[in-house]
Every structure is written in C-alpha cells, then in structure tokens.
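Quick illustration, no need to memorize.
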Amino acid sequence: METLHESCLLRPMNFPPANLSPFHSDVLQQTQLGQLCGREQLFRDRYEILRMLGRGGFGVTFLARDAYLPSQPLCVIKQLCPRVTDALTLQTARKRFECEAKTLSLLGSHSQIPMLLDYFVMEGEFYLVQEYVRGSTLARLVRRYGAFTESAVKGFLREMLQLLQYIHQNQVIHRDIKPQNIIRCQDDGRLVLIDFGAVKEPMAQLNDTVGRTLTTNFVGTIGFAPPEQFSLRAVYASDIYALGVTCLYLLTGKAPLDLNSDRTTGEIYWRDAVKVSDAFAQILDKMIKISVPDRYQSAGSILRALNREFPQDNLAYCLTVQPPANNQAKHKQGSDAQKSPSPVSKTAIAIRDWKNRLKDQQRSGSPRMKGTLSPSGSSQE
C-alpha cells in the first residue's frame, strides 16, 4: 500500500464504470466500502469513503474521512475478507481477529506504529480503522530517488531494529516487513511500520466454505518472507530475515526475486549487485540466512553487532536522531526506555548539551574564542 499526494486525497472517486480497470471495478462492485466510494452516504453513519488505497490477498484498504469528529481527520479502513460462510468457522475466526486486534491496539501506542482507532465485524466481514500516516513508502522513495547509501541503510536499520525490539517484546511477529509497508513520515521524518500480518493470520487459517480443507494462504510477501513462514511457522527471526532483505532492496534498488540465488539452498547472492563494507555485508548475510538457527535471533543482537563494528555510526545516530517528545513516558511497557543510557548515548547527550551551551552564549553575547574546537577535535569558525 502506498500513500497518495494530499491534493489527490481530497477528490472523490467518481469514475464512470467504462474508465475503470477490471481490478478496480471488481473491488468497487463487490465490497461495501467500494460501493460507497465517492458517495455522500457514510459507512456506519460515520466514515466518508474517499478512494481505494490498496488490495491484497486478504482484503482491501480504503482512505476515509471521519465525519463524526469535529476536525474530520483522514483515516484508513481495512476490510479483511474471509473466504468462508460456515458460521462456526466464522465465529472462531472472529475471536482470533478480536484478540489480535486488541494486541495491535496496544502496539499502536508507539509513535512508529499507526494507532488502531476501531475494529469490528459486520455481516461476516472484518474491519480495522487506523490512523492515516502522511508520507511516502520506502519503495516509492527508491523508485523516485534511487538506491540508498550504506550509511543511510545503517541508519535505517538502527531505527527499525529498535522498533522491532518493541514489537517482539510484546510477543508480536509482524510477518510482512517490506519497503511497501514502511513509510517515511512527511511531518517529522520518522519511519512508520504499517500493515501488521498478525491480524490477518485468522484469515489464513480458516477452512474453506464447507470446512473440509485448510487454505494454503500464508501471511507475508514472496521474496521477503523466509521459508519457515510459508509453512505458517513464523518466528521472531522471520521478521529479521524480511528486514535484511528490505536492506538489500534499499541498497540495490532491486526486488529480492531479481537478485541471483542458489537454486539448491535459496541463499541470496547480492554482493555483486552493490559494494558495501565487509563488516556490514557479514551482518546482512547473517540476517538473511535460510536456516533459522544460523540467523540472528533477536533485534538486540544485531544492534550489538552494529555498535561493535561501527561505534562511530552509533554516536552520529544518537546525535542526529532523537526519540519523539514524551515517547519514553508514553511507551514504557516493553521498551528500553527504562534502562540506563549506554556510554555512547551518554557521550552523545553530553555533546548536545555542550553545543546548546555554546548557542546560549552566542545569543547572550558572551565572549567566545574564535576557532573553538568541536568534540571531534576539528576547528569550527
């Protein structure tokens, strides 16, 4: 799913049927949200459906406006479509869906995860209403500006690993990490992870319409999902694999299926596609190991490897990337906010304080030596 430019968001989708592709036409005709798209009639007497944002194996996503609230904010409505009609099976799926939605609601208190505003089941269809995040997906940014540098990817990886720690500490596996599901927020530049696969899992495990066979649908994306996920046996390390492949995409601009791989083992051969430092290449190689035991088992272990191999990058990251205001107080559960700062973080904080004091001296007109040495030892005019 990708975000749209603001000028496009506010225009209703009043296309004549002749101008619609079969893809859009089927969605608009076969779903309740599609039938309301671009019309004045509100969904559940509250939501004005503006346009379709995306469609996947488990449902369809629409952009909407919450007409109930005074500011009428934009929001995203996901309609998950189970392929069953059996009442008992639907009841089981409903319980699983509500359980996973509650978990997603707790995760949504994090600034890098869209807030879950509502969830409900209506006429056998499952719905999620989430906060709309204004920005561009990493897939769109790569198409528009080209591949990322090694330094940029390492910064991306550090930010995502801290988020992944929070998610895994809350016993959740995302299951569908990929560039299309990571948004660079337009307002403040933070990375936001969307489209959690955990809430789709009940759809993947439903019986068919007569309850005889189990569906073969898996939650994830071919190329980004590791082998164990195809067997519906995702583990925390499955997210690490997907994050590693996402890094390869950012470095090379190539989808994983466009990279060479070993036909026997499935290992991806990517080093010929881009040149990076050997230490970083080894970290990426371990993230995308086909065998789960050979892979990193936690986000924290990768962060430690990055800090060990690139301590100067960690210092630069601490200096330039700060957590959102009140984020630590807001997300105490399952986060590292309660821990004491690392030595590198303490150094970064001291340097920021030193710079702020210099700025205060300049503003107050206090005398200051020209050519004062910076913390790195270089001369600043």
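The longest helix spans residues 343-364.
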